[in-house]
Amino acid sequence: MMDLPERDLVESAALWTLEQLKSYKHITGADILYKADISSSLSFIDGDLEDNSRGRVISLGLRVIDKEGRQGIAYCNMLDKEALCKVIEWSVHNCKNNDPNPYVELNRNQSIAFKDQDIFDPFIAEGFDFDRGSKICASVTDEARSIDKRVKSVREAFYGEGYEETLYLSSEGFCEWQKETVARCDVAVIMSDGDEMEMGGFGDERRYASDLDYLDIARQAVYRTRLTLGGKNLKTAKYILVLDSLASASFVSMLEDCFLADNVHKGRSLLSGKLGCKIASDVVNLIDDATLKKGMGSYLFDGEGVPGQRTTLLSRGILNGFLYNIEHANMDGVPSTGNCARGTASLPSVGASNLFISPGTEDLECLLNKAGSGIYVTELLGLHTFDPVSGDFSLGIKGARIERGILEDPVSGMTIAGNIYDVLYRVVGVGKDIKFYGSVGSPSLVIEDVATAGI
């Protein structure tokens, strides 16, 4: 199965590494995170091959912990004894130069039954087929061109697949493998109508190649670009906004850092001290769930060997909790939520898995009718400018004007500004059309009285 080291070889190298640490009496614990992946992709511009990439990465990271909670980490890209000896030497050296931390420890729960999240596609693991990838790119290119004559160029038709193996092994006796796959397709188009021109696109990724609807991706790319072609400003005012599922998912992604326990402890989130408080409207329920079947953010275990879990962060607008790794869970006297984010070269931090707003019961047509007039938003621009400490944002929007519940003229070049916690209170409608974009998901949302700058 693909060109990766045999598992027995990897486990032997990892166990040998832990065995050598016994000579360092001040080291009380250690763990190893091993990752190996192969990825392949094709990219075409207007039917011509632009890029053909294949990558293979192998990395083994060693973390050591001393009796005072100091941590040290080092990694290598080879499994021979010389490289492993260097990793041991440098991880111990780095440990000596770190600060003591009484909350750092290894996962000691060994009686774990993992649930299968169905994140591995044997078909992808067999290897990448160049001809099949080329046919997919040709099909989405032809589909995009056939939908609308105003499509002047298919600037990108991308298809890629990836396969990854992960081993987590610790001095506490934990040893477990995980394997996962991903398939992705992206289409970007340029459309023009007279003097008006618009570039847009759409992409999707799935755990199983057969779950990707390539032609629908092309259709979505054209539809979303056509919707905002020739977009104009509306008057500056407060509007009802109906965010489609993609724009809503972008909104949800802005919230992630606010719920990470390490950010809360470092003063990088305004949610510090608000546990049990109401911070959003009754219709907002925010979930993080690493156990979703075929979820792009799903996993058997996190970077510390803690099983993936489902955590309710907001329930009817009330802050229920945060996402934790072991260190920050110990600080707050709570169990880890299984949200340790970690690479082979990094110490444990905290990260979300599948983060999403729970769906409501109404379809998009019903939400538009309830809104009556306002702006239908399909894209939020400038997400990187959001400040999770203050909650303030200023974002560009694209979409279409809503009049009598019907989508009318295209809208672009407008800006919404405010505070994200204030906006959470203004969510008055949640659709049933939940969709995931990567590991973030949301249904359509209706938000009232949003300050919007135009002409």
TrEMBL record:
Record-linked Pfam families: PmbA_TldD_1st, PmbA_TldD_2nd, PmbA_TldD_3rd
Molecular function via GO? metallopeptidase activity
Ordered alphabetically, the record's keywords are: Hydrolase, Protease
Which GO biological-process labels does this protein carry?
A: proteolysis
Q: Which GO terms describe its cellular component?
A: cytosol
InterPro entries with a match to the protein in the record: Metalloprtase-TldD/E_C, Metalloprtase-TldD/E_cen_dom, Metalloprtase-TldD/E_N, PmbA, TldD/PmbA_N, TldD/PmbA_sf
Write down the superkingdom of origin: Bacteria
Per UniProt, residues of the Metalloprotease TldD/E N-terminal domain are: 30-94
Q: Which residues form the Metalloprotease TldD/E C-terminal domain?
A: 237-454
- Family, per entry: Belongs to the peptidase U62 family.
From the Swiss-Prot or TrEMBL record, give the protein name: Putative Zn-dependent protease-like protein
What is the originating organism of this protein? Acetomicrobium mobile (strain ATCC BAA-54 / DSM 13181 / JCM 12221 / NGA) (Anaerobaculum mobile)
